[in-house]
Specification:
The chain is α/β, with parallel strands linked by helices. It has 9 helices and 6 strands. It has 2 domains: about 130 residues, HAD superfamily/HAD-like (Rossmann fold); about 80 residues, DNA polymerase, domain 1, CATH 1.10.150. Helices cover about 45% and strands about 10% of the residues. Strands 3-2-1-4-5-6 form a 6-stranded parallel sheet, with helices on both faces. Helix 1 crosses helix 4, helix 2 packs antiparallel against helix 3 and helix 3 packs across helix 4. It starts with 7 loop residues before the first strand and ends in a 10-residue tail after the last strand. About 35% of the residues are buried.
């Protein structure tokens, strides 16, 4: 189904392999209780999830920095819930969230099965917009670090997906031509269009259950990779 032979497969991490939603929920369940923030967890997560996505979109566009992202996603959630939480507590929560997030290590369904299938046949790598100190812990804690030869993050590159530079850095580090590489990710803008603009082949893992588009093949389960590669 691909125009050229694939030798290297690049994965996004959060929402593609690592179950961000479940691990994030477990982290909040811990830190909200420990800091005596009396909100209903389900209500909090329902409001937080879209705000977090909005903040990450701004971060990708260089509209906000790392510290502002971490503060604003919490501040805006509490404001929308009508809960008064002091800046001091928000700063503590922001710090503890990062500190504890990688201690929960649920993977998305069939991650290990897909990686076990690919590992003997292809060179595997990660390209992530996540923060370096957290992403490495996620990979090691969830037991998948050994699958990947190169791990490229946005702090290392100095730019974020979909900026072409981070994909070029990844290709250079892996020593592979774009036409022989495949990017697998959940975000249409950052992963699919970003990689495609560099001449990479692409596969959209439809974690967010978006409507079909014509940019590339979409899969709903990672195990479907076995039928494609």
């Amino acid at each position: 189904m691909f125009d050229h032979k694939v030798t290297d497969v690049f994965f996004d991490l959060d929402h593609t392999l690592w179950d961000f939603e479940k691990n994030s929920a477990l982290t909040f369940a811990k830190i909200l209780v420990e800091n005596k923030v009396n909100v209903d967890l389900d209500d909090f997560l329902e409001v937080y999830a879209p705000i977090n996505m909005q903040m990450w979109a701004l971060y990708r566009q260089n509209g906000i920095g790392k510290s502002e992202l971490r503060y604003q996603r919490l501040k805006r959630t509490f404001d929308q819930l009508g809960e008064h939480v002091s800046d001091e507590i928000i700063d503590i929560l922001a710090h503890e969230y990062i500190a504890h997030l990688s201690s929960f290590n649920h993977l998305l369904p069939n991650t290990l099965e897909a990686l076990d299938y690919l590992f003997p046949k292809y060179r595997l790598h990660i390209i992530t917009n996540g923060f370096q100190e957290v992403q490495t812990k996620k990979l090691k804690g969830s037991g998948i670090h050994h699958y990947f030869q190169k791990v490229i993050d946005s702090e290392m590159a100095g730019v974020k997906k979909p900026d072409p530079y981070i994909f070029q850095m990844a290709l250079d580090m892996a020593q592979v031509k774009p036409q022989n590489s495949l990017m697998v990710g959940d975000n249409l803008e950052a992963d699919i269009l970003g990689a495609k603009s560099m001449g990479m082949q692409v596969l959209h893992y439809n974690f967010h259950r978006e409507t079909q588009h014509g940019e590339c093949t979409m899969i709903d389960d990672l195990i479907e990779i076995k039928n494609i590669l």
